[in-house]
Amino acid sequence: METSLTINDPKMEDIQELRRIQPTVVPERYVRDQDEQPARSKTCTTVHVPVVDMAKLDKNDGELARLSSACEEWGFFQLVNHGIDEKLMDQMEELAREFFMLPLEEKEKYPMVPGTIQGYGHAFVFSEDQKLDWCNMLALGLEPAFIRNPKLWPTKPQLLSETLNTYSSEIRKLCQRILKNIAETLGISSDTFNTKFGEAVQAVRMNYYPPCARPDLVLGLSSHSDGSGITVLQQDMNSVGLQVLKDDKWVPINPLRNAFVINIGDTLEVMTNGKYKSVEHRAVTNNEIDRLSIVTFYAPSYDVQLGPLPELVTQNQPAMYKTYNHGEYNRHYVTHKLEGKKTLDFAKI
Length: 349
Fold this sequence. Notes:
By secondary structure, the protein is of the alpha+beta class. It contains 9 helices and 14 strands.
């Protein structure tokens, strides 16, 4: 198993502090190799990630077809009319931003322990020469209760923990509804995924991307696919930072007011036998404007055995993935750096 480094490593400056002290400096550890630099990447702004109206899904076959197409052709979609109170979304965003604006010594009370992805700091860092993301993050386990680490839940801002609990409860119900609708697009029983997931694992990661003097050279978050079943992302309206890889080009996801960005994770790719694929995505930065996102990862219980659903394995479409323990895959995912879809090799036959 690789060894993780902590934010206290002298070569891993806190991005906000670095920006405050030397606003025009980008340390070498953040400058990407040429093939990863945003300025050298092919982008496309003429196509857009599909938008799905959740209010229509249960009564409109056309909307269900739109969801199916989004899952199969993009692996991403923006979800509107999802039923979660916009005031709760706004409050969650405001409190997350307040946390990142706290003094460094306050945030460092909740350090990300080596080998884990909970707490404040840099995640997925395993070597001293690895390029770093231009991002500070606070990651917390939510459900089941045993994955929570109360010592890492901030006491400031005062309402953060209480609001996060309320927000996460609503997101959990949303994930269950989304999985029900995705099952329906596949022509299988609507409760298939929710049953197979068991006592689902839920975690949240709040990402803060300060302005960067050279956004052409750095990445806010490395290109990767998610190890989850599905991911629910709330992004602020400040700037466009999230990009998804489509036909070998990076497509920006323009924020929609009160929408969530939903994406298929590696787990759902395996369970659908590759019909719905997880897709690489990344975050870029801006030289003047900061950006905040709140990301919820929803995945099966660690003790669940996963593989392609029998209903989706045929003579013409044999199993593309092996059956494995999800806890083992999760350990594999969190102990390797973010690097495209390489972690999914674990599941391939």
